[in-house]
Amino acid sequence: MITSLYSGASGMTAQQLKLDTITNNLANADTTGYKKVRAEFVDLFYQNLKSAGTPVANQTSNHPTGVYKGLGTKIAATNRIFTEGNLLETGNPLDVAIAGDGFFQVQTQDGTTAYTRNGALRVENGILKTNTGLPLIPNIAVPVGAVSISFDTDGSVSVEQADGTVAVIGQIPLVRFANPSGLNAVGDSLYKVTAASGDPQEGIANQDGFGSIMQSFLEKSNVNAVREMVDMIAAQRAYELNSKSVQTSDDILRTVSGLKR
Predict the structure, then answer these.
(1) pLDDT single digits (tens) 233-261
(2) Are 25 and 223 in contact (CB under 8 A)?
């Protein structure tokens, strides 16, 4: 009976974590470049009361199945799903999106490199930066007096001067990872390398399997709000059922303890 208490409690803990994950997905349903997270669970070890294949009493046959008692569930991973979100046309020439595989590289305030799918850019102090003020890698300097800026599908950046001349001022490379789900999310739509993600592989946009750069577009979150709401209801129901199993086990234990009176 004690086992059912622990199993029910582990189920409640699991569903609470799943609910936390779902609510975070919903909170970021409009976050540019956000990738949804899915909570994944595994069952715990089993108490082996009788192994399958053990001989029966007369020794002429074996038990076709065993007797195992489960001990609940636990979290295995919170897996980030890197499917591409819808591209939204914004009309802003400084908005860029990656149509396909790849990440932008940015330099964080501590000097390290981070990676993002958020292409909402701006010009600050003559440097192309993200909307959180982080410069792209490599730095791209926009000359004073430029009247327009354009991005080619291969990441080439060019500006038009007031006299009508056009000059290429740099190129935005893309990087990809063998296992992007292994990246460490650090907030501000940024990710950092881990041993699980593998080292970044740099390349040119629209070549060798990398995505292409789309100007005046932003990649929306890949969160499906309707699906998340359905999952939320399912998590709520599962939590209630697990709490009911704990209550039922407690009632039975109370009945048993009352028999001695």
Answers:
(1) 999 999 999 999 998 888 888 888 787 66
(2) yes
